[in-house]
Amino acid sequence: MNATEQLAAWIQESSRIVFFGGAGTSTESGIPDFRSAAGLYQTEQHSPYPPEELLSRHFFDQHADIFYDFYRGKMLHPDAEPNGCHRLLARLEQKGKLHAVITQNIDGLHQKAGSSHVLELHGSVHRNACMDCKQFYSLHDIMHSKEVVPRCSSCGGVVKPDVVLYEEELDQATLYHAIDALSSADLLLVGGTSLTVYPAAQLITYFQGKHTVLLNATPTAYDHRADLLITEPIGEVMKGVDQLIG
Fold first, then answer.
1. Is 216 annotated among the ligand-binding residues?
2. What is the pLDDT of residue 15?
3. Is 25 flagged in the annotation as binding?
4. Distance separating alpha carbons of residues 104 and 122, to the nearest angstrom
5. Using CA atoms, how far apart are residues 196 and 77, in angstroms rounded to an integer?
6. What pLDDT, on the 0 to 100 scale, is given for residue 242?
7. Distances (CA, A) of 8 to 35, 64, 120, 121, 213
8. What is the CATH number of domain 3-30+82-122+169-245?
């Protein structure tokens, strides 16, 4: 039995699956990750500001124009489509086998594929709000704003994406729901994440179920905890699993 067949077998025998994913989940959809050789943190090394600085709260507050120039140019991918991983997870949810997707991504591709039980640890580009009056704005509004820094049409306040920047805390309710889902899961699928971003990465320690499957192109500090390691592209692997489970 190869790794894909083993994963398919464990999925078929499980009833409370949780998926914990990162940027590598969406690379096959054309969205670059952060830390790989082709990721944002490598390709932007020659910028006057490192990405960690550009994506910090103090930088947003002080240089919203530079932030939005980077954000629109590098972080927004409105035409991206779900890949085999997103689609399989949505199907497993529809079958009642998958109970939660916990994602560090902000791209909304899990919802686009049809998943509804998605816990977005770092927020979403699809939600934006005026920092003063809290009026909602869509991704389309941000993409097509005539101003570099989007302003509220009601009060003139700065509109901020609902994404967690460096120096900001994760939403506590989302964290509690993630811990609850992981604590009651019988199969944990971890995909497309280096597990280096805290406190998000630490969440998987709450899993006490039967099997942990780690799907990531490069080694992580949690490899020794996995019952199965898969390094092939996650979208292709999940597409193969989808075909096996029928």
1. yes
2. 97
3. no
4. 5
5. 24
6. 96
7. 29, 46, 26, 27, 11
8. 3.40.50.1220
Determine the Cα–Cα distance for residues 192 and 235; give it in Å rounded to an integer.
Answer: 10
Low-confidence ranges of the chain (pLDDT < 70): 35-39, 41-47
- DSSP labels, 44-66: TTTSSS-HHHHTBHHHHHH-HHH
Instruction: Indicate which residue of 86, 99, 110, 122 is catalytic.
Output: 122
Is residue 86 annotated as a catalytic residue, yes or no? Answer: no
pLDDT tens digits, one per residue of 19-29: 999 999 999 99
Query: Residue 17's beta-bridge partner residues?
Result: 98, 187
Give, for 88, the enclosing helix (H) or strand (E).
helix 84-94
* Rounded CA separation 242/244 (Å): 5
Position 162 scores a pLDDT of 98
- Domain assignments of the chain as residue spans, ordered by start: 3-30+82-122+169-245, 40-75
Can you give the pLDDT at residue 21? 97
To the question of whether residue 85 is assigned a binding role by annotation, the answer is: no
Q: With contact defined as beta carbons under 8 Å apart, do 149 and 156 qualify?
A: no
24 and 216 Cβ atoms separated by less than 8 Å: yes
The per-residue pLDDT for range 124-133, each reduced to its tens digit, is: 999 999 999 9
In this prediction the pTM is: 0.94
CA separation for the pair 96, 162 (Å, rounded)? 29
Q: Is 104 annotated as a binding residue?
A: yes
* 16 annotated among ligand-binding-site residues: no
Burial class (CB in 10 A: 0-12, 13-18, 19+), 55: buried
